[in-house]
Amino acid sequence: MELGNLIDLTQTAVELGLIGALTALALFLSYSMLNVCDLSTDGCFTLGAAVGAVFVLSGHPFLAIVMAMASGMLSGLITALLQTKLGINDLLSGIIVNTGLYSINIWIMGGASILNMNRKETIFTMLGDALKDTPLEGKQVLVIALAAAALTVVFMSLFLRTRLGLAIRATGDNPEMVRSSSINTALMTIIGLVVANAFTALSGALMAQSQKSVDINLGTGMVVIALASLLIGNTFIGKTRRIPSRAVGAVLGAIIFRMIFMIALRFDIPSFMLKLVSSILVTAAIAGPYLKKQFPLIQRKYFGKRAQKEAR
């Protein structure tokens, strides 16, 4: 492979990883901090992309970002209300919302399954024009994706240190204790999911504008990708409890995940096999720490049996 092609592929993987990192950070808030497994992520990602695309097609690329995040907040609110007010399990509420969002997303897209923004101006094309004849020419996607990921990490780090953020973390750690402290756990769940889904929708909107198209299946598998990114990041960062380090770990995990995808594609793995690659990565990320702990015991058992056989 030529060096130029390798650099281009690496840049693309980093760009996709940084955009996807916003979803990983959303899952970091809902799954790691709030202890809620939100399976509406796939639909919410597509919702942000669809809403953003509609506004881009109307000539408002910046408003598209704001409205995409607002739509994600509404999706998170509905998911949270199903859990806290209707007593529906968090897994089921996510599945219900995700299923409903499929129809809503098609309705937002005007009944079409694909929206094309090739002839419309996006925040990426606008920055691309501004960066002409500079060292960053052609790197507008990387610049915006890096800025979005960095700002989200800073926001998460500061937000989770506030009294509200600490209450959300406490709700995820020990809801019974939080209730005894007169903190409204239902409200904490609602706020946490609203904020998390806002960043999921933002991720979808940025992905749509960078690719200049939206497909109804754009968000399929994003919850698995985000979970894999989160777990890979935890493996690299270690057992630290510092929020900034864990947030940065989620971003690194998303980039590493996309890099692995890039390597898989270079080995000519068919595109339909990439979901299997995602599943294997998630399994490895989850089972890795457990197997690492169990390795000394397995080693002792193996060498113990081997020693017994040799003694006979």
General description of the model:
The chain contains 12 helices and 2 strands. It folds into 2 domains: 3-268, ABC transporter involved in vitamin B12 uptake, BtuC (Orthogonal Bundle); 274-312, no CATH class. The protein has helices at 3-33, 41-57, 61-84, 90-108, 123-130, 140-159, 163-173, 175-180, 185-211, 222-237, 243-266, 274-311; strands at 114-116, 213-215. It has 312 residues and is mainly α. 77% of the residues lie in helices and 2% in strands.
Flag low-confidence runs.
Answer: none
Query: How many DSSP helices?
Result: 12
Question: Radius of gyration, rounded?
Answer: 21 Å
Largest sheet: 2 strands, antiparallel
Strand line-up of the largest beta sheet: 1-2
The CATH architecture of the largest domain comes to Orthogonal Bundle
Q: Which CATH class of the largest domain? A: Mainly Alpha
The succession of helices and strands, N to C, reads HHHHEHHHHHEHHH
| Average pLDDT number | 88
The end-to-end span amounts to 55 Å
Output the CATH topology of the largest domain: ABC transporter involved in vitamin B12 uptake, BtuC
Strand content: under 5%
Count of individual beta strands: 2
Into how many domains do the coordinates divide?
Answer: 2
Portion of residues in helices?
over 70%
Shape: globular
